[in-house]
Specification:
single chain; alpha/beta; globular; binds S-adenosylmethionine
């Protein structure tokens, strides 16, 4: 569930400044779902069997009064897990109110522990130290099981693999390396800028031997590894080299209330207009269920099939 389309970072692989700069028109306030509308949707989804909600964005901590929303969401019957993904820059002041409101888990995105590379990666005025303080604030507020997300790009932050893994081990955090994904060819994606999960596993295992294990959760998209010395776990999200479309059970709601059954789907189903024009909850549930039943998104698998047997030069051309 995206609670805002705005972000205070301009990560080149996600919201590149050339595209999301001064002239970009973000959603107007009236276009964004209100807290009441978000709650209504979450209740409907929970009624259809959804047990886990992740708040995201844009940068979700930019949404005013977010702890008030969290406090209501945790009361939704059937919802067992409420998590949030953030760039961590505002956790210093918000970790405690979010914990008090009942937020269950946090994932913090962190692409580098090198201050200069962090700056280049986030393309913002926020210093690395502010995110590290945010992580500390989360710990002091009592969050446990916090995850770190790192998007690796070839030639940019491979040097961060071991420092980040070491940091996560020391801090008791679970680090996940995510393969750089093509989000609609808007982010300069090229296949040769993807660092394959298998390569990351080999680099980390050379330093800290680890073994792969399976988690019971069928909708889980990460590969799980555990360090043999008891130093915790590592996750690898091989969205490009080993796409998992068939195992994906995620529905995505944009800040303006459109339902997407794939991160890469070109169009969503406009639930906001349906709600604002007086649609009832049972009709809303039927609409969502019908859309869910006919989903057949296989964006990443198709992309992978298209590139698998090509000579490398051709693969790079396809990657733009
Ligand atoms: N602003 C929040 C944050 O930074 O975590 C939440 C939104 S952000 C889009 C959610 C996650 O998506 C982040 O961990 C980010 O690194 C990841 N992400 C964004 N673009 C990506 C891409 N092209 N490939 C892989 N991961 C990406």
């Amino acid at each position: 569930m995206s609670v805002t389309d705005r972000c205070n970072f301009r990560c080149p692989y996600c919201m590149p400044r050339e595209r999301f700069g001064e002239g970009f028109s973000f959603l107007e306030r009236k276009e964004i779902l209100t807290f009441e509308e978000i709650l209504r949707l979450v209740r409907v989804f929970a009624g259809l069997g959804v047990a886990k909600v992740r708040l995201t964005g844009g940068e979700p901590l930019l949404r005013r009064d977010l702890p008030l929303l969290v406090a209501e969401l945790v009361l939704v019957p059937g919802l067992r897990d409420l998590a949030l993904t953030t760039n961590g820059s505002l956790l210093g002041s918000l970790a405690q109110p979010l914990k008090r409101a009942g937020l269950g888990r946090l994932t913090v995105s962190l692409d580098s522990l090198d201050p200069d590379r962090f700056q280049a990666s986030s393309d913002s005025a926020v210093p690395l130290a502010q995110v590290l303080e945010g992580l500390e604030a989360a710990r002091s507020a009592g969050f446990q099981g916090t995850k770190l997300n790192c998007v690796l790009r070839r030639g940019f932050n491979e040097a961060d693999i071991l420092p980040l893994a070491g940091f996560a081990r020391d801090q008791g955090l679970t680090l996940r390396f995510i393969e750089f994904m093509d989000v609609g060819t808007r982010n300069g994606w090229r296949l040769d800028s993807v660092v394959p999960a298998a390569e990351v596993a080999a680099i980390v295992a050379r330093q800290w031997p680890m073994e792969r294990f399976r988690k019971a959760d069928p909708g889980c998209v990460a590969q799980h590894w555990r360090y043999l010395d008891g130093g915790g776990e590592l996750g690898l999200i091989a969205s490009v080299t080993e796409p998992f479309c068939s195992g994906c059970d995620r529905a995505r709601l944009s800040a303006d209330g459109a339902l997407y059954t794939c991160l890469f789907a070109p169009e969503g189903l406009d639930l906001k207009t349906f709600m604002r024009s007086g649609g009832s909850d049972p009709d809303l549930a039927a609409l969502v269920a019908a859309r869910w039943k006919r989903r057949d998104d296989r964006y990443s698998e198709r992309r992978s099939e298209a590139t698998r047997d090509l000579p490398r030069a051709e693969m790079y051309r396809l990657g733009g």
